[in-house]
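Entry type: protein chain
Record version: 2
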Amino acid sequence: MLVRKSPGTDWTVVLDEEDPVLGPTCQERTIVVKPVADLGEVPRYVRPLGANLRTAGLAVPTERLLPLADELGAVGATNLNMLGTKYIVGLDEPHDGIFDTLVLTRSDALRWTHIAFRDTNQALTAALRENRAANTMRDDTAIMEVIS
């Protein structure tokens, strides 16, 4: 295990290569990095977090993100951020799986998983093209153009 921190309390980074299973962390300005050999195993590694799983920072190829996002959403992730993107959501994005403005107007049992890319249109278009080419999209998958 390797720990790097700022001189004060601005940030702490922990590199943990011992066990890929992720447990609760101290949050806030702390990040725990756990390299994995197989992206397909990531949902199993984070499943123990259960209802405490919210945001996951990812460094994965865009073409592999959408299938992984489906699986991470199924185990509880509601906010997926590609490294280098913002982690604070705006009013037009779901927070913890729920659009806050909808909560003010009605009860909504629908939960969303938000994905933050550096260039959302480019990333989603590339991923959708890749999925179409591989013919791996499910029949119930909705395709939406993101307008920024």
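Comment: The CA atoms of residues 80 and 139 lie 23 Å apart.
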